[in-house]
Design a protein that fits this description.
The structure holds 2 protein chains of 2 kinds.
Chain A (H helix, E strand, L loop, with lengths): L1 H7 L11 H33 L30 H34 L4 H15 L3 H13 L9 E3 L3 E4 L2 E4 L1 E4 L3 H29 L5 H19 L4 E4 L2 E3 L2 E3 L2 E3 L1 H28 L2 H9 L4 H31 L11 H13 L2 H30 L5
Antiparallel strand pairs in A: 1-2, 2-3, 3-8, 4-5, 6-7
Chain B lengths: L1 H18 L6 H8 L2 E6 L7 E2 L5 E2 L1 H14 L5 E6 L4 H6 L5 E2 L7 H6 L2 E3 L4 E3 L1 E6 L14 E5 L3 H12 L5 E5 L2 H10 L4 E5 H8 L8 E3 L7 E3 L2 E3 L3 H19 L7 H7 L3 H6 L16 H8 L3 H8 L29
Helix pairs in contact in B: 3-9, 3-12
Classes of the chains: A alpha+beta, B alpha/beta.
Chain lengths: 396, 340
Amino acid sequence: MAAEQRVKSPPAKAAFWRRPVFRSALFQTLLVLALVYFGYFLFNNTLHNLEQRGISTGFSFLSQEAGFGIVMTLIPFSELSSYWDTFIVGLLNTLLVSGLGILLATLIGFSMGVARLSRNWLIAKMAAVYIETFRNIPLLLQIMFWYFAVLQPLPGPRQSIHITDILFLNNRGLYLPAPLFEPGFDWVIAALGVAFVTVFFMVRWMHRKQEETGQIFHTVYISLAILSGLPLLAFFATGLPLSWEMPELKGFNFKGGMVMIPELAALLLALSIYTGTFIAEAVRSGILAVSHGQTEAAYALGLRPGTTLRLVVVPQALRVIIPQLTSQYLNLTKNSSLATAVGYPDLVAVFAGTTLNQTGQAVEVIAMTMGVYLLISLAISMFMNWYNKRKQLVER
Amino acid sequence: MKKMYVIASAVAVCALVSSATFAGSNLDSVKKKGFVQCGVNTGVPGFATTDDKGNWEGLDVDVCRAVAAAVFGDASKVKYTPLTAKERFTALQSGEIDILSRNTTWTLTRDSSLGLNFAGVNYYDGQGFLVKKSLGVKSAREMDGASFCIQAGTTTELNLADYFRANKMSYTPITFDKSSETAQAFDAGRCDALTSDQSQLYALRIQLKDPSSAMVLPEVISKEPLGPVVRQGDDDWFNIVRWSLFAMLNAEEYGVNSENVDKLAATSKDPNVRRLLGLEGIKGKGLGLRDNWAAIIVKQVGNYSESFERNVGMDSPLKISRGLNALWSKGGIQYAPPIR
C-alpha cells in the first residue's frame, strides 16, 4: 500500500521507462535471455561440431551391452549388462565409499578433536601429531601409500593371515563369513523395528517425566536392553533363522563369504583418516568457541563433567562445527573420485573411465558424471543445512 | 545504452565461441607450428619409451618420426604427448595431438563412432596372458575363477569378458589406468594373471622383479591390429600418415634401407625403387610433399624391418620374431599398396 501511494503522489508522473521497477525488470529479463541464448548456443555449437567431426551423439549408447567386467558390484552385473548398469554400479560404489568414509571420518574426527583438548599430555600430543601429519600430506599420496605400501605386500591367498578359519586377510582383500538369512528372519527385523519405536516413545516420556518431577531414569541402559532384547527374543523364538557362509579357498581365490577388496580398503582408510583431521580441527574450534563461563556455570549447578560436555558444551559447539562439517563431507565425497588411482571401480573410474573410452561419447558421459556429483553434493548440503537450522541458536 | 551494451556483449561472446570452432587442414597447421604433435604410450618398452637422454624411441614413435620426416624433411620435428588408454581418443578428437600412435587396436566402433580413422597397421598383435610359473597353469582354459590385472579402457577388457563368457568360466577383473600399474599389481600378487596384447606382455615381463618367475601362456584370444590414428574429415593428412607407413614397408620390400638409400637414389635402375625415391612417377605431388619424401623417411627412420628389429626385434631386449608382421612375401601379412 505504502509503495503504491508513493508512486501515485508525485504530481508529474515519470515516463514508464524511467521507473526503477520497469528498468530493473527489463535488465534482468535481458540478462536471463542472454544467458539462455548463450547456453543454447554452446549446446548447439557442440552438437554441430561433434556431427561435423563424425562423432556420434545422444544417449542411445546407454542401452548397449557394456561387454566388460567390474571387480566389485553392489547389484547383479554381468558382461551382458548395459552401459546404464555400469553407471549405476559406479554410482553405488561411489555412494558406498563416501557414506562409509563420512561415518568413519566423523568418528575419528570427533574423538581426535576432543582428545586434542584433553588434559592428559600424552593423549593431547598424540592427537596433535596425528592431525598435523595426515592433514599435511596430499590425499593422493596417502591413498597410494595404503594401497601400494600397506595392503599389496600382504601375503597371497594361499598364505592368508587368518583367525580360526573364519576371517582371512590377504592381498586380495579381507574375507568374512556372509550371513545367510532364512525365512523366519523377517520376524527378527520386525522385532527390531518395534524395539526402535518403543524406545523412541519411552525416551520422550522419560524426558517429560524428568522435566516435571526431576526423577532421573537410566535411559541409556533401558534403551539398550530393549533394543537388543526384543530382536534376540524373536531370534530364539523363530528357531535361529540365520546361518553363515564361510569363505573357502577354492582354486585361485577365496569363494563365498563377504569380501572387502583392498582398493576399497585403501581408499576408505585414506579418505577417512585425511578428512578426520579436518573434522578434528573443526570440533576443537567448536569446543573452544564455547566460553569457559558456560562450563563453570554448569559445574556451579552441580553437573558432572560428562553431563556438562553432553548438555552444555556440545550443543553450543555444534553451531560452530556443523557448517565446517558440511564442507568436509562435501570434500570427502568429491575426493572419492581419486579412486581411479588404485583401481577402485567408482563412478569416475567405471563410467567416466572405461565406459567413456569404450563408447567415445565424452560429452554425454562427462555431463552425466558431473550432474551426479552435483546432485550428491547438493543432497548432502541440503541435509546439513536442515540439521544446522535445527541446531542454531534460537533467540528469544 | 545499457541495453545495447548487454546485447553487444552477448553477440561478442557468441562470436568468440563460434570462431573457436574447428577449421582448416591439419597439414597447414602442422607446417605452421613447425612440428608434429604425436600421442604415444606412457611407456611400453619397444613401442614408446624414453632412453637415458630423454629421447622417445619405439615402433610407435617411429611412425611419428616418419611423418615428421615426410612433412619437414627432419624426423626430429616431433613433440610427444604421453597418454593413458583412457585419455588417448579424447586427446585426438579435441585436436590436442595430430596423430595417435599408441598401440591402438583398430575396431569398427572406433573407426565409425569416434570421429577417427585408422591410417594403417604397424603391428599385428593378439591378446595373451602372463602368469606366474608357480601357479602351475599351462593354458588359459585352466583359469576359471582367477583374477586378472588389465589396463582400463582397452579392447583387452572386452576380449577378456568375451573369452570367459564363451568358455563359461568366471573371472575377476582388476583394472588400472597405466600398464605399468598392472605390472606392479601383478608382481605384488593382486591378480593371478596379467592380460594384454602379447607384444606388451613381453615388454612388461622384463619390468618384473624376477622376469623368469612369469611366463606367457600359448593362447592368443583376439585379433589386435595396432596402428596410427588420425581425425576424420582431413583426407590430406590421413594420406600422409598412411603413406609414410607404406613407404617404410615398400622400402623393406624393395631392399632399400637407411644405409643404401643414397647410393640407390644415384644408381638404381629398378622402376619401383626409383618411384619410391621420388625420381619418377607421381613423386610427392599427390601428397603435397617434396619429391624425395619417402627417401628422407628411409634415410632418417629406416625401413620397416630396420625399425622393427631395432625396437622390438632381435636387436632389442624384447627379441620378438616377425611372425605375422613379416612381409607378405616372407610369410607374414604386412602388405603395402604399390607406390606408383
